Amino acid sequence: MQRFTRLVQPKCTQVQRRFFNIHEYQSKRILKDNGGKVEFGIACTTVEEVEAACAKIKTPQKVVKSQILAGGRGKGHFVDGLKGGVKVCKDTQEAVASAKAMLGNTLITQQTGPKGQHVNTVYVTEAVAGIKRELYLSLVLDRKSASPMFVGSAEGGMGIEELAHTNPEKIKTMKINVAEGIDNDACVAYAKELGFTGTVAERAADQIKVLYNIGKAKDCTMVEINPFVELENGDVMEIDAKLSFDDNAHFRQNEIFDLIDESQIDPKEVLAAKHELNYIALEGNVGCLVNGAGLAMATMDLISLHGGSPANFLDVGGSATEEQIVAAFQIILGDAHVKGILVNIFGGIMRCDIIAEGVVNACKTLKTDVPIIVRLNGTYENEGKKILSDSGMVVHPVPDFETGAKLAVELAQARK
Ligand code: ADP
Ligand code: MG
């Protein structure tokens, strides 16, 4: 599950929020270092490393797990038809063959979108024997109660998304009062609700506390364990782990944010982050360069209203520099689908002349023939417009927002 909102409020999936995600093997290292119970494993990027890892893994069976920043791997498939991004293998030979087939391949799951994600690392782990039950357990931030909340279900494993829709009553929750902290008795009672009994319920409660403490200490927006398992011998374990972090906590979680795997992120988004631009790639063909998130959203709406489709969300912020504007153009034009760019600026703190300088500079350096439609309004508007007209560049100035959106859609469609 990508985010908790998807589990309980399917209508909210369109809310654009980005959280920093790390791989399963990285999440499990954090769990292990903080009292979690995870199986032994080694992250590998080559077949030779997989062979060496298998020699260190004590169980005869080995599990080979594709490391991508999305769930649903077990039920996923690769672009070449290979089934399953998680394979329980009977021996080293099978594990090596599986890893060979996965490394360098692209895995498509319910969460990756149709393009899938490239697998450049596999996590080779011990096979956990004697699994009695697979549960779903996650710690999320509940907007309604404005508190951390555990979400769990005795029927976890790989079908949790369906369960949330078909049998929502089977999802059990426990809210935590951050001021009071997590309470042991409440954890034991919650573990019992999830079907644990006796000393196993106490073990499960201990792990619930471990997960809460990690979530709190590391500024997690989500700690998702699916499956959280009960073993025949009465132990409990976290067999899959997905941690997401609040981007706003970057400044105090440098060690975690250093774990970034840029190979798994759209390079345009990586470049945008470097230039402190608020950018999200979308599927359409009209590139947008806007100041202010609200105006950016409204721009996307107006493009859609006029029959077009935005290629991105891009908010240059309130005080962008000329360099940032050039970088923004570079990012927008890095998307081959872009057939027109709408620059929609309402100059408040942002000066229209700085935007105009940026547009001219970008046109000169990037030498694009994609039509650029510019609406400038507000601070230093006349200076900005003069810079554009004096530049000799082919840009399409428009008097207002709606005219701009219409023209951008028209020109983009004409280039198809
Ligand atoms: P995903 O959620 O992306 O499909 P998981 O890590 O949850 O990936 O693996 C899918 C399923 O594979 C699990 O529900 C579990 O049944 C099995 N599995 C995963 N890791 C192990 C392991 N180390 N030992 C035994 N079974 C495992
Ligand atoms: Mg899982």
UniProtKB/TrEMBL annotation:
Alphabetized UniProt keyword annotations? ATP-binding, Ligase, Magnesium, Metal-binding, Mitochondrion, Nucleotide-binding, Tricarboxylic acid cycle
Name the major location: mitochondrion
Q: Where is the protein situated, by its record's location annotation?
A: Mitochondrion
All residue ranges annotated as the ATP-citrate synthase/succinyl-CoA ligase C-terminal domain in the record: 289-397
* Catalytic reactions of this protein: succinate + ATP + CoA = succinyl-CoA + ADP + phosphate
Where, by residue number, does ATP bind? K65, G72, R73, G74, E134
Its cellular-component GO annotations read:
mitochondrion; succinate-CoA ligase complex
Cofactors: Mg(2+)
Q: In which pathway does it act?
A: Carbohydrate metabolism; tricarboxylic acid cycle; succinate from succinyl-CoA (ligase route): step 1/1
| Gene Ontology molecular-function annotations | ATP binding; magnesium ion binding; succinate-CoA ligase (ADP-forming) activity
- Its EC top class is ligase
Quaternary structure note? Heterodimer of an alpha and a beta subunit.
What biological function has been recorded for the protein in this entry?
A: Succinyl-CoA synthetase functions in the citric acid cycle (TCA), coupling the hydrolysis of succinyl-CoA to the synthesis of ATP and thus represents the only step of substrate-level phosphorylation in the TCA. The beta subunit provides nucleotide specificity of the enzyme and binds the substrate succinate, while the binding sites for coenzyme A and phosphate are found in the alpha subunit.
**What does the sequence similarity comment in the record state about its family?**
Belongs to the succinate/malate CoA ligase beta subunit family.
Q: Which protein, by its recorded name, is this?
A: Succinate--CoA ligase [ADP-forming] subunit beta, mitochondrial
